[in-house]
Amino acid sequence: MRILIAGASGFIGRALIDRLLADPRCEVVALSRRHQISDHPRLQWRQCDLFSMKQLAESMSGCTRAFYLVHSMLPTAALDQGSFYDFDLILADNFARCARAGGVEQIVYLGGMIPENEQLSWHLKSRLEVETVFRQSGIPFTVLRAGLILGRGGSSFDILTKLVKRLPWMICPAWTRTVSQPIALDEVIEALFSSLVDPRHLNRIYDLGGPQVMTYQELLLKTAKVLGVRRKLFSFNLIPLGLSRLWVSLITGSPRDLVYPLVLSLKHAMVARQDRNWSDWTRERVTVEEALRQALGPSGGRIRGGAAIPSAPEPRIVRSVQRLPLPAGWNAANVADEYFRWLPGFLFFLVRVRVRGAECSFYLGSPRILLLRLEKSLERSTPDRQLLYVRGGNLASSKISRGRLEFREALNGQVTLAALHDFIPALPWVIYRFSQALIHVWVMRAFGRHLARFRK
């Protein structure tokens, strides 16, 4: 089997690579944004930007099975405009489209535990949306849902250990008494591998829970015990969730873009459902304390699966993704046509638009100063995805030609995503961020309100 791993450079991906290479039947193609090397004859690293369907399709060539371990919660460009859940959605949609076109026979996705009948945080909603993309793709799938994974290099686990190491006394808000089932990294890897080789797991959704149910406070104390430090916890229910996520970010030094969604999700109980509980364990379960010892011990931080080579600095590129409503009976081509029809009227005092064949040009008033020129890719555009490349204009840099605007349907036609990728502005960076960048988001939001009128 030639197996693709998206998100291979993460702590789960590297551990999974080791497990797959231990089986002589497996060849591994590992995807990473940065260039990586390996001297293993059955491991090939491929540098790939998952936002580029062209790169992804080329990287996926020849693979029959695929793991998807991607979570887009940290910045992906010099300027990200949009929400992490929209980035997650477009990445998953890219992956499903390329996998379907490339003949992939199974997608295994590791997501988050989803509580039933609750108002989910956007972090968990995003995990559920990614699941939905793969379930609707027509490709056989296996979905594994896990809560906190105990392994060094994991975002949630690193936040946990930093809190314990840096705070002798902790004032704990209400969410620290929410129950969960932390699980050892090795057990997650075992379940991922079994999902791939055992056909019984096709088209199934499983919850991965550890053998013990405990509160976050109990987990903090167990971590302190393993680290050999004494910690005092004091409960204080009146601490707002927004304030607690701020102090978690400040104390741990973790980015707010990462901490805020994670903390908001901790209000939900992360306990495996009995009807979806993974029970196909082949060895004795790993207790929380033993999993902590493994993760915090000398071998817990071992780099696996190859070594990264620092890549050349990226230019100051922009990525902007907005979620738009899709009127009934419309497709992405209709949305793109409506955008170019609507925009001149909305910005009548500023912009004129001329469409000639596959070209669309934006001009500044009169005399006609070319702002942007877009060229529709007739070869790669489809009714459910319209792709236009940036081909010039006074607002676009001429350094590289990867800039592109797309309108695409997602979630089986429930929404449209308008996405600007790899755009390099011609304006000085500071001026761009507080002028053209803000205007672009403002225009797209106004266009979303315009489309919403057609849904009534």
Classified in CATH, the superfamily of the largest domain is: NAD(P)-binding Rossmann-like Domain
Rg, Å, rounded? 24 Å
Gap between N and C termini = 50 Å
Largest sheet: 8 strands, mixed
Find the CATH topology of the largest domain: Rossmann fold
**Which word captures the global form?**
globular
Overall pLDDT metric? 91
Helix amount:
25-40%
Strand content: 15-25%
The CATH class of the largest domain, by name, is Alpha Beta
Q: What's a concise summary of this model?
A:
It is built from 13 helices and 23 strands.
SSE layout:
Elements lengths: L1 E5 L4 H11 L5 E6 L3 E2 L5 E5 L5 H8 L4 E4 L10 E3 L2 H19 L3 E7 L9 H14 L5 E6 L2 E2 L4 H12 L2 E4 L6 E2 L2 E2 H13 L6 E5 L5 E2 H12 L4 E4 L5 H12 L3 H10 L22 H9 L10 E2 L9 E8 L6 H15 L4 E6 L2 E6 L4 E8 L8 E8 L11 E7 L4 E9 L5 H5 L2 H18 L3
Parallel strand pairs: 1-2, 1-5, 2-4, 5-7, 6-17, 7-8, 8-13, 9-12, 10-15
Antiparallel strand pairs: 3-16, 11-14, 17-23, 18-19, 19-20, 20-21, 21-22, 22-23
Describe this entry's structure for a reader.
By secondary structure, this protein is α/β, with parallel strands linked by helices. The protein has 2 domains: 2-308, 3-Layer(aba) Sandwich (Rossmann fold), CATH 3.40.50; 318-453, START domain (Alpha-D-Glucose-1,6-Bisphosphate, Chain A, domain 4). It contains 13 helices and 23 strands. The strands form 6 sheets. Strands 6-17-23-22-21-20-19-18 form an 8-stranded mixed sheet, with helices on both faces. It has a 7-stranded parallel sheet with strand order 4-2-1-5-7-8-13, with helices on both faces. A hairpin with an 8-residue loop joins strand 20 and strand 21. Helix 5 crosses helix 7 and helix 7 crosses helix 10. The longest helix has 19 residues, at 84-102. The radius of gyration is 24 Å and the shape is globular. The N and C termini lie far apart (50 Å).
